[in-house]
């Protein structure tokens, strides 16, 4: 299974592609962070996110898109920007008939580190270890995008196996 993970944001949007499955080793395909200028108008920033995510979907042909589910924060502007960037990524996937999964930050942390309360340093360290990287992905948005992809590779592959078994039992 190939998954494109998106850590949405207007200032920094993490993108990471991972190949793998349950019981198989993970492989890094690509990772990057899209940056948009804070002084650029909202429409221009969202367009940049849509174009970059669309380009990654076209280039890497993932089986699924995994996006961080927006959670409540004290800073409403940050939440709004994150939600808008995430929605644009979902729209880009929908235009290409790529299935989308939303994962909460605690779900991703638990999948990657074993603890839903892990900090960013722990997530980055485990992503580095799981993908057998020489250096840690930087900035944190890159590591978060890869963590989202890893989370979905494991959960999505497991769910696909269950679905196949259920389907085989009905025949």
Summarize this entry quickly.
The chain is of the alpha/beta class and 171 residues long. Helix content is 53%, strand content 19%. It contains five helices and five strands; from the N terminus they run E-E-E-H-E-H-E-H-H-H.
What would you say this structure looks like, in words?
The structure is a single chain. The protein is of the alpha/beta class and 171 residues long. It has one domain: Ribonuclease H-like superfamily/Ribonuclease H (Nucleotidyltransferase, domain 5), CATH 3.30.420.10. The protein is built from 5 helices and 5 strands, in the order βββαβαβααα. It has helices at 42-60, 76-95, 105-113, 120-130, 140-170; strands at 2-7, 12-19, 27-35, 64-68, 100-103. A 5-stranded mixed sheet has the order 3-2-1-4-5. α2 links the parallel β4 and β5. α1 (42-60) crosses α2 (76-95) and α4 packs across α5 (140-170). The protein is globular. The mean pLDDT is 92.
Blueprint of the fold:
Layout (H helix, E strand, L loop, with lengths): L1 E6 L4 E8 L7 E9 L6 H19 L3 E5 L7 H20 L4 E4 L1 H9 L6 H11 L9 H31 L1
Parallel strand pairs: 1-4, 4-5
Antiparallel strand pairs: 1-2, 2-3
